[in-house]
Amino acid sequence: MFIKRILSIIVPSAVLFSGCSQKADLDFSGGAGSLDEFTDRYILAINARDTEEQRSLIHPLSFANLAELQELFIREALERSFRHSIPDERQVNIESLEAELLPFHEMVVWPVEPTHQLVIQFNTGEYSITTFVRFLREENGKWFKILPRLNESNLERYSDYRDSLESQMEAENNK
Hints:
The chain has five helices and six strands; from the N terminus they run H-H-H-H-E-E-E-E-E-E-H.
């Protein structure tokens, strides 16, 4: 359940990954010109299940130099972003983050530090509320979502989780 909690909080769109290594090699043509534009485009991408638009809003350093297991973790986490459509009736808040108080610092490594937090909250049932928390940063005059990576100890836990899933699937197939 720990991994599922991390997956649901940290990020959420099936994405192609690149192996860029230096900032100069990265493509910053995506992103959004303002926080309002970012929010609107992000919500539209989620509701349309548009993975390309999602990718265009993600900071390119989020995909640089990923180990295979990190790439798998991010891919699975991003796929979860399409579980819910975001309705018109929603609350949206954008808050500044202080560098020394970055969220999840004990669980993740940030490829680039986020400076803001986007919180989108909406009802998904009579007694159910869903909250999306996304971490953002402005770079080169554009706003991007930042995808964190698991730190070493949590990456090891994730590997054990994946091994356990594969064993369960194998056992099911052998029945």
